[in-house]
Specification:
It is built from two helices and 21 strands. By secondary structure, the chain is mostly beta strands. It has a domain of 117 residues: Immunoglobulins (Immunoglobulin-like).
Length: 294
C-alpha cells in the first residue's frame, strides 16, 4: 500500500474516534448497566435531581420520593380523670365580674375526652428533613383571652410568623412568654384590644414553653416555636395531622405539660414513623396514666 493511502486511512479512523467521543458528551447514560464511578455513604448527602439533596437520616429529599401525612390520635390508657375546676362561676378571686361571669374556669393541664382522647399534646420533629426549606406562613395566628382564659391553650407557630396577642376582656391582661432561646417576652394587653400586639419569635425552641398572665395567676398556656412546619397539636378528642412530609423514616417527639410524671415533658422522645408517599395508615399513641403523674 502506498504511503499516501496509509496516511488517509489513519486520518479517517481518527476522525471517526473523535465523532464517537463527541456524541457521547451530549448525555449521561443512565441505563441499568451503568456503574457509578463514586459511591456515596448512607450517612452523607448525595446529589439527586440537580441540586436537591437526599437526606442522610433516611427521610427522602423534598420531591424525590413524594410526600405523605402523619395522621394519629393520642389516647389515655387508664380510667379517665374527672374534669377539674379552678373557680366556679362568679367566684374568681380577681375580677370575678369578668373572669368567671359566663361559667366555671376549668383546669386545662390534662383534658381527656369521653372517648379518652388527650387534648393539647404537641407532636413534632426536632429538625426539618435534610434539604427542606420553607418560608414562614404569611397568615397571622390569633392568641386571644376571654373570661380570663387563653382561648388557645397549646399553640404551634413558626419562626418569623406573626402571633397577634389579643384581649376580649374588659380588664387588663399581660402575656408573659418564657422561652429558652427567645427569652422572657412580656406584653401588657389593654382591655378589649381587638387589634392586638404583634409578637414574632426569632429563634426555634427545643420544646414548648409556658405562657402566663401575672395579673390572673391561674391563666396558663404553652407555645412551641420551630423553623419548619412539621408539628401539630392534638384537638379536643386527641386527633392530630401533620401534612407535607417527604417520604422516609422519622422520629417524632410527643410532649405534654404533664408528660414527665405530672411535670412538663416528653411522653415519647423517639416515636418512630415511616411515611409513605400518599395515604398513610393512622397511628394511635397510647399513653399510660402514670406518664401523666396519675
Amino acid at each position: 500500500m502506498k504511503t499516501a493511502d496509509l496516511k488517509f486511512g489513519w486520518m479517517m479512523a481518527a476522525c471517526a474516534g473523535l465523532l464517537s467521543l463527541a456524541s457521547g458528551c451530549g448525555k449521561l447514560d443512565t441505563g441499568a448497566h451503568a456503574e457509578p464511578s463514586v459511591r456515596v455513604k448512607s450517612a452523607e448527602l448525595a446529589k439527586v435531581d440537580g441540586d436537591k439533596p437526599a437526606a442522610a437520616d433516611g427521610a427522602a429529599a423534598p420531591g424525590a420520593g413524594g410526600v405523605g401525612a402523619l395522621i394519629g390520635r393520642v389516647v389515655f390508657d387508664g380510667s379517665r380523670p374527672a374534669p377539674g375546676v379552678i373557680y366556679k362561676m362568679g367566684a374568681a378571686d380577681k375580677d370575678p365580674s369578668v373572669c368567671s361571669k359566663d361559667g366555671d374556669i376549668p383546669k386545662e393541664d390534662l383534658v381527656v375526652s369521653e372517648s379518652k382522647g388527650v387534648a393539647n399534646v404537641f407532636v413534632f420533629l426536632d429538625k426539618a428533613p435534610a434539604g427542606f426549606k420553607a418560608a414562614p406562613p404569611a397568615h397571622d395566628i390569633q392568641f386571644d383571652q376571654k373570661n380570663c382564659r387563653f382561648t388557645t391553650h397549646a399553640l404551634f407557630c413558626q419562626v418569623g410568623q406573626t402571633v397577634r396577642l389579643m384581649n376580649d376582656d374588659g380588664v387588663l391582661h399581660n402575656t408573659r412568654c418564657v422561652g429558652n432561646r427567645n427569652g422572657n417576652v412580656n406584653n401588657a394587653i389593654s382591655p378589649n384590644d381587638r387589634t392586638g400586639i404583634k409578637l414574632v419569635y426569632k429563634r426555634p425552641e427545643r420544646e414548648p414553653f409556658s405562657v402566663k398572665c401575672d395579673l390572673h395567676a391561674w391563666m396558663s398556656a404553652y407555645h412551641l416555636v420551630l423553623d419548619h412546619p412539621f408539628a401539630a397539636v392534638s384537638d379536643a378528642d386527641g386527633n392530630f395531622k401533620i401534612e407535607g412530609l417527604p417520604a422516609g423514616k422519622y422520629q417524632f417527639k410527643v410532649w405534654h405539660e404533664r408528660g414527665d410524671g405530672g411535670k412538663p415533658g416528653l411522653l415519647e422522645s423517639k416515636y418512630n414513623v415511616v411515611i409513605k408517599s400518599g395515604d398513610n395508615s393512622a397511628v394511635e399513641i397510647k399513653t399510660d396514666a402514670k406518664k401523666f403523674g396519675l
